[in-house]
């Protein structure tokens, strides 16, 4: 392997290591905020009974699966960055045949797109610079890093993938997505700034 290739590999490993560290912090904060939201709903005297029941279901699921959700999110992030996993591929296939998509799945796809779009507006210039950098880096590596790996939509889809095995309704999942939206708007600035 040439010196250029070795240097590029080292740079990529640094990027990957930093990314996993920051993404780990992102998902940790998302799960903590989701948990706190559910606790607050349970304590709120003005909350509707149905809302409290749903919040309790979300809280139970979260407390039983918090570690696994975080582990899956980080594993998929690493695989996506290395180009080993295409996140959201099944959703794209389904979107081509909307008759096969149930209403909740369609609503979830739309929700993810809306949340990601709002966050991406804040970081458009960061993302363009990152994509250019990863494409250039990929020319000297044995694989091509995934330029979209750090986009808000990819990260939101990683969260979706991590929740896919759950039986949570869309209204329950929305607590996770709303927490992601709130945390990502703050946390991604540190994330992108550190990568650049």
Note the topology:
Blueprint: H1 3-43, H2 49-81, H3 89-96, H4 103-122, H5 124-138, H6 152-163, H7 170-195
Describe the structure.
The protein is 79% helix and 0% strand. It is elongated and about 65 Å long. It contains seven helices and no strands. It is an all-alpha fold and 196 residues long. Helix 1 (3-43) runs antiparallel to helix 2 (49-81), helix 2 (49-81) packs across helix 6 (152-163) and helix 4 runs parallel beside helix 7 (170-195).
Largest sheet: none
Which word captures the global form? elongated
Strand content bin: under 5%
- Helix content class: over 70%
Report low-confidence residues grouped into runs of 5 or more: none
Distance between the termini: 26 Å
Radius of gyration: 18 Å
Structural class: mainly alpha
Number of discrete helical segments:
7
Kindly state the number of beta strands: 0
Order of SSEs: HHHHHHH
Quick check: average pLDDT? 88
Characteristic terms for this protein:
elongated, single chain, 196 residues, mainly alpha, 79% helix
Summarize the structure.
With 196 residues, the chain is mainly alpha-helical. The protein has 7 helices and no strands. The two termini are 26 Å apart.
